[in-house]
Structures are given as C-alpha cells and as structure tokens.
C-alpha cells in the first residue's frame, strides 16, 4: 500500500494460513519501494481540487499499477521467492480522495488508484483490491480498514488502544477479552501529514527524522489552541478524514498566519497537535466507557521519538508501547493488514468492523482480479 504521507510503497511478503480466528501469519520480507519524485508530484496534483484533472487521474491510475507491480517483484526478489509461488496480491492502492459523508451534490465515496489489472498482468497473479468501497455501499465510511486485523492480532485480557500514526492517525479500541462486535475504531485527526508538509516546505526533506527539529523548538500555545479548535477533533465517531482536510491547503492556511515562527517552533507545535488531538479523542470518546491499560503505537509516527515522548507525557496512567515492543513491525503493519483482509475476501468472509465504519452490516470487502492468462 501507499499511504497519505507518500513516503513510499510498503510491500510485505507474508505466509498466511487459515482465516478469521484461525489466522496464522509469518512475515518473510518487508520493503518500502520509493515513489519517483515526478509521480509524487502527480499524486499531489490529484489531491488538489485546483490542479487535478480527468486525464491526470486516468493516467496515474495505470502508472501506480505499474509501480505496485514493481514493488511486488522487488520484495519477492529480495526474499528470493519467484512470482510463481504467490497465491494472491493484496493492494490497497493510493487514496486520492475520500468523502466519508455526503455534502452538497457529492455522495459518500472514495477513490484509490493503482489499476489491479496492470498488477495482475505484470505478475500473473490474482489481485484483491479496492477494500473500502463495499463498506461504503453498506452505509459505512470505508475507513478505518485495519481494525479487523488488529482485533485478530492484538486482542488480550488487557484493554488496549492500537494507535496507528501514518499521514492520518487512527485508533482501534479493543477492550479486555473483546468480541469483534465490541471493537470500535476511528480517525483521531492528523498524524504525520502536517509535520511532513511543513518539513518539506522549509527543509526539502520529506519528514522530521526522529523528531529532531521539533525537539529544538518550543510549542506555541496560541497556534496549538487554534489547531485544537478544528471541528474534526471534537466530532464524535464514527469518523474518518484524509488529506482533503489536513493536507497542503490546511498547512498553507496555517503558514499564511504563522509564517513568522521558526521551523523548529512550527514543528514542535504541530507534533504536539498530533499528540494532543490523539489523547483528546481518548478522553472524549474512549476513556469514559473503556478501561484501557495499554496504548500500542504503530505507523511512521512510532519512529518519531519526540512525538512518542509527548504522547507518553499526556498518558501518565497508561503504558505506551510500540509495535516493536510486541515483536511486530510499525512500518509493515498496514501492509500486513491488507494481506489479512484479502485472505478473508478469498475465503468469502466479511472483514469490515461496523463499530469502526458505521456500516449497516458486515460485508465481504474487496474486488478480485483473476490471473489474466
């Protein structure tokens, strides 16, 4: 998959057996395959209402298909596994726009690019893709997708929040000894998206490595308070968001007002905004109902030492861990989740979590593109 942060295509080679509660998996290889700069620019243009076009979206859909196919070939090559040994490819695609709730003349909908026919042809392997759309057809928001896999992998006798911090941050709540119908999940707000965008504009780097720049700055209370007033932060779940709400347009609006601040102070404040928005959602929508002992961080944000430190300071009564503390990979987590979803699709089993998306009923996710010849 390729996320909203555009930091590369995550590809995992996973051996998976069984399904649902009998699922057993082993990670054999993981790579992040780079997205060429010219393709990144085209994706960013697709994100923009002003710069996007039908021609650009149509062309990029096929370009991303070829890139995903190449990522599959590379991860197999690195693991020394021939393509002929693959049973299926799970492809989330590249989200370019997501409309979780209808407004004006626009209906609830979502669009992920990365043509599965191209992937299937290039690899001679069946592809399961487009996981969000069936949930939306069933009245859900099509996001978040990962709670099903998190339930299978992380349920225990302790109350847990599995907090993914990618471009957008999302929380999955798994109470002690939970059943699937007990699970709730929702987007909490921005993850790395604002931090990365500001870092790119000021330094040319795609992200703040280990939060090093942020740790040199000071959190600006007035800017932080303004950000925390964003209506999405206080919106009750189910809820989902993306680049259309916290992307470059949002960053530009902040910079127009706060450009006099140093990049260190901006990043310190935006890093705290991510931490505060996550914890504020916990206090509003999770802690009043659920007893939580552990918060487990994943995604790229789990490698930002400054962000992790801020979250720990804001949660003195919970143990804050990373995926690595449990023997998993923060970086590979979402790609592994796609494999689990595709496996359920091929077994004819629903894998949406209605407590996460708000769908009317459990449904089988994903479209299947067969081996072409």
TrEMBL record:
ATP binds at residues 3-10. The keyword Transmembrane does not apply. Keywords: ATP-binding, Carbohydrate metabolism, Kinase, Nucleotide-binding, Transferase. It catalyses: 1,6-anhydro-N-acetyl-beta-muramate + ATP + H2O = N-acetyl-D-muramate 6-phosphate + ADP + H(+). Pathway: Amino-sugar metabolism; 1,6-anhydro-N-acetylmuramate degradation; Cell wall biogenesis; peptidoglycan recycling. Gene3D superfamilies: 3.30.420.40. InterPro entries: Anhydro_N_Ac-Mur_kinase (IPR005338), ATPase_NBD (IPR043129). GO terms for molecular function: ATP binding; kinase activity; phosphotransferase activity, alcohol group as acceptor. GO terms for biological process: 1,6-anhydro-N-acetyl-beta-muramic acid catabolic process; amino sugar metabolic process; peptidoglycan turnover. The keyword Kinase applies. It holds the Pfam family AnmK. Its EC number is 2.7.1.170. Catalyzes the specific phosphorylation of 1,6-anhydro-N-acetylmuramic acid (anhMurNAc) with the simultaneous cleavage of the 1,6-anhydro ring, generating MurNAc-6-P. Is required for the utilization of anhMurNAc either imported from the medium or derived from its own cell wall murein, and thus plays a role in cell wall recycling. HAMAP family: AnhMurNAc_kinase (MF_01270). Belongs to the anhydro-N-acetylmuramic acid kinase family. This is Anhydro-N-acetylmuramic acid kinase. It comes from Thermoflavimicrobium daqui.
């Amino acid at each position: 998959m390729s996320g909203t942060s555009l930091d590369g295509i995550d590809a995992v080679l996973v051996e998976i057996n069984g399904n649902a509660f009998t699922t057993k998996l082993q990670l054999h290889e993981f790579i992040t395959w780079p997205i060429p700069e010219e393709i990144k620019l085209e994706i960013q243009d697709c994100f923009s209402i002003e710069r996007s076009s039908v021609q650009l979206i149509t062309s990029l859909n096929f370009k991303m298909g070829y890139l995903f196919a190449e990522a599959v070939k590379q991860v197999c090559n690195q693991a020394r596994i021939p393509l002929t040994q693959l049973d299926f490819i799970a492809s989330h695609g590249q989200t370019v726009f997501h409309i979780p709730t209808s407004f004006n003349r626009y209906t609830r909908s979502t669009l992920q690019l990365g043509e599965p026919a191209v992937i299937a042809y290039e690899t001679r392997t069946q592809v399961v893709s487009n996981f969000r759309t069936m949930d939306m057809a069933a009245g859900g928001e099509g996001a978040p997708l990962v709670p099903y896999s998190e339930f299978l992998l992380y349920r225990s006798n302790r109350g847990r929040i599995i907090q993914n911090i990618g471009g957008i941050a999302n929380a999955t709540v798994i109470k002690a000894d939970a059943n699937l119908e007990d699970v709730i999940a929702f987007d909490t707000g921005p993850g790395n998206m604002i931090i990365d965008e500001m870092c790119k504009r000021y330094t040319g780097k795609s992200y703040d490595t280990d939060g090093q720049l942020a740790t040199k700055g000071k959190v600006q209370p007035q800017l932080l308070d303004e950000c925390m007033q964003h209506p999405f932060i206080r919106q009750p779940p189910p809820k989902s968001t993306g680049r259309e709400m916290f992307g470059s347009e949002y960053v530009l609006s902040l910079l127009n007002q706060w450009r006099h601040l140093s990049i260190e102070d901006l990043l310190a404040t935006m890093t705290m905004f991510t931490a505060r928005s996550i914890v504020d959602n916990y206090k509003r929508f999770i802690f009043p109902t659920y007893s939580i002992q552990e918060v487990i961080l994943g995604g790229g944000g789990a490698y930002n030492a400054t962000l992790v430190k801020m979250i720990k300071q804001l949660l003195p009564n919970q143990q804050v861990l990373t995926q690595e503390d449990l023997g998993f990979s923060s970086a590979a987590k979402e790609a592994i989740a796609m494999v689990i979803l595709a496996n359920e699709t091929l077994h004819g089993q629903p894998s949406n979590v209605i407590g996460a998306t708000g769908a009317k009923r459990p449904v089988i996710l994903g479209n299947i593109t067969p081996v072409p010849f």
